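notes to self, project folder thing:

trying the whole complex as one job this time. last attempt i did each chain seperately and stitching them together was a nightmare. two parts in total, labels are on each line so i dont mix them up again. if this works i'll redo the older ones the same way
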Amino acid sequence: MTRPTGIRGAGIRVVGLTKRIGDRKVLDGVSFEVNPGEIVAVLGASGAGKTTLFRCLTRLAQCDDGEIFFDGENYANTKEVGLVFQQFNLIRRLSALDNVLAGRLAYVPTWRVMLRRFPYADRQIALASLDRVGLLPYALQRADRLSGGQQQRVAIARALAQHTRFVLADEPVASLDPESAKGVLSILREVARERAIAVLVSLHQVDFALQFADRVIGLRHGRMITDLAAAQFAETHRQMIYAT
Amino acid sequence: MVNPAPAPKLMEAVIYPDPARSLLVRAPLRSAAIFLAIVVVYAVSLTIVDFDLARLWRGLPRLAHYAASAWPPDLRELDILLYRALETMAIAVIGTTIGAVIALPCCILGAKNVTPGLWIYRPVRAFLNIVRAIDSFVFALLFVIAVGVGPFAGVLGMGLHSAGTLAKLWSEVIETVEPGPLEAVSLTGANRLKVISYALFPDVLPNFTSIALYVWEFNVRASTALGIVGAGGIGQELKNSVDQLLFDRTFTILIIIVIMVMALDQLSSWLRRRLL
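result (full assembly):
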């Protein structure tokens, strides 16, 4: 499912996204693009609107104004949007492989899911996805027996098995130690490149953002105050984003 | 010399305004009223149930006489009695299973976090409350009219009542499940049935089984009482023996019930320990 990069209108495009809670604008006219194969990091202090942005993108929350495009379409098949969560959100009692197979649920008839009889091709996709994140040896291990970093890699494999073209990762490394965090982020960057996936990731460590992202978006009180290449990000930007 | 501190009593009066005193001093009137209410409840209840220790005292020799006549236990029809015990266990197995089959869809429709909507949640909850309010043997009594005396009526009654209990306990398990994994799976584009069978079910399965074993265990005890309304099992033998004043036979039946229930308790708690 690789797609060439640089297609016009491809990737994620957000235009003037606004979300109010009461009188307060938690998101205020946020606009940006994430191209296929690119990782864009969202930075911001707590309460800057990062989580609200992700909830609007996954349609867990309704936005009040603005538009969201996936590959130029105003609407995306949810099965093409892969999600990675801070708490991994794996099904704890199922094996790593079964969790990755969850990414195939939208492609498989309901009766097959209920009987747990996945077609050969889907099982192959799941195994390949697990192999891609380096966890093939743990395929039959129960998810809750894996380390945090391994669980997050299973979650990435689940997104890959969806044949996703967009990954939305809200604080994917917030509950991981620095080494596991780097492992997770570098895998995310590699698969973004290989499969031309547009990745939007929120982080609270600026250093990780600069090391792994192509571009950095800064949110402050719901407004987007920076949108620049990671290389151009300077100390002044950091101060602007996190100023109290 | 330093000035002496003001008297503590005075300070209290200054720091704590009047209402705070009510926390320190019990209202004697209120305590008396509560005490009186409790006395009235017990007095009325004891009168209603015709509680009379003297009567028990006078009746004790008679009970002792019967108890003496229960020894030695009558083992002549042991094979029949054991078969009846088996029947009791079979009623519990089939009754619990019928309950589980009815409860499975009900617990999903009746759990707030996975129900398709209030339009189905409310009627399902109402149905479950009704079948839970009516005991197995009351249902059995009604089913005896339909299908006649025998274990089948007992099985049906038990099934209906157990469905209510199981569905209530199961839906409580579902409602405490972590929402994250379910949300993650449903956002892959999977429909509700897929999410429930693939993500929810494996998570709740151990708890579901443990609850079902508990209800089964409970149903074995309940089904001894079922026999009394003519719904088969060892309860029926118990009733017959008491009615005919065959106390040695009654004693044998009681021993069988105690051993059976204790063995099942052990078996079921061993199974549950292995599950969790």
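what i see at first glance: The radius of gyration of chain A is 18 Å.
need to look closer tmrw
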